[in-house]
Amino acid sequence: MQHPPHLQIELLSKRFEPLKRLEQWQQQHSNAEPGTAAAEALFIGRVRAQASDGAALTALELEHYPGMTERQLNALATACSQRHGVERCLILHRIGRVLPGEAIVLVAIAADRRGPAQRCCQELLEALKHEAPFWKREWRADGNGQWITGNTPW
Amino acid sequence: MTGPDSATIRVRLFAGLREAAGWGEQEWSIEQARSPEAVWQQLRLGGDLLTVRIAINHTFAAADQPLQAGDELAFLPPISGG
Question: I need a labelling partner for B48 at 20 to 30 A (CA). Which of A37, A86, A108, B27 fits?
Fold first, then answer.
């Protein structure tokens, strides 16, 4: 069981459907090794309709650091997956202009048991929020755009 | 490789820092850029370097890490991913 975890990490500049992408990921998994990794945990994050000060949000803009962002995501996913001994890890993260209601992040973990799957999923999500170079700018109806400094609380 | 033209580093700024400075990428002479904190002082962007993350060649680094010609130095404002 101690083979290296399978990682799939993508930055997406266009809208994506998390459930479709999740289904593809599950199918690859069940075709390759049916009956293994019986536990899956997942998180889907979407863009809120309100900016951090409560004003109506028209879009969220996501900037990243090409090269470093991918490298950091890979390092975080590798470390977290190995620490929890999970089998497979999927991270999809939007970049560019994202509209309210659209998915911004999908993290999915497959493991042998629920504990490692859920812990790894939560830990990796928190790690990427704080340690992977992404920056959000909130665009409002009046055309004003403001960079967010920091993350939302839990 | 070691001619005067190659003795530079690349400085990169992101998000709010990029807009405060009015540029995102510049070449700096290594003579002016011995460490991230030396570059930061010359940028005069205001604000505390403690609130900014530093990366050298796509890896987080300390403010006093010596720079070498060919390095890419980046100043990263507070991260907000996910």
Answer: B27
**From CA A111, how far away is CA B79, in angstroms rounded?**
29
- Total tally of structural domains belonging to chain B: 1
Tell me how many domains chain A contains.
Answer: 1
Q: Using the beta-carbon criterion (under 8 Å), do B80 and A149 form an inter-chain contact?
A: yes
**Residues with Cβ within 8 Å of residue A58, at least 6 apart in sequence:** A99, A100, A139, A140, A141
Residue B41 belongs to some domain of the structure:
yes
Distance from CA of A36 to the nearest CA of B (A): 29
Flag if B77 and A147 touch (Cβ within 8 Å): yes
Identify the CATH number of the domain in which residue A104 sits: 3.90.1170.40
- Residue ranges making up the domain that contains A38: 6-147
DSSP state of A132: S
Q: Is residue A99 part of a domain?
A: yes
The torsion region of residue A51 among left (phi > 0), alpha (psi -120 to 50) and beta comes to beta
Q: What is the pLDDT of residues A17-66, one digit of tens each?
A: 999 999 999 998 888 777 788 999 999 999 999 998 899 999 999 999 99
Measured between CA atoms, the residue of chain A closest to residue B12 is A65
By the 10 Å C-beta count (0-12 exposed, 13-18 middle, 19+ buried), B48 is classed as exposed
Q: 3-class DSSP state for residue B81?
A: coil
With an 8 Å Cβ cutoff, are B79 and A137 in contact? Answer: no
Contact B78 A65 (CB under 8 A): no
Q: Is residue B81 part of a domain?
A: no
Model pLDDT, residue B1: 46
Q: Which domain, by its residues, includes B55?
A: 4-76
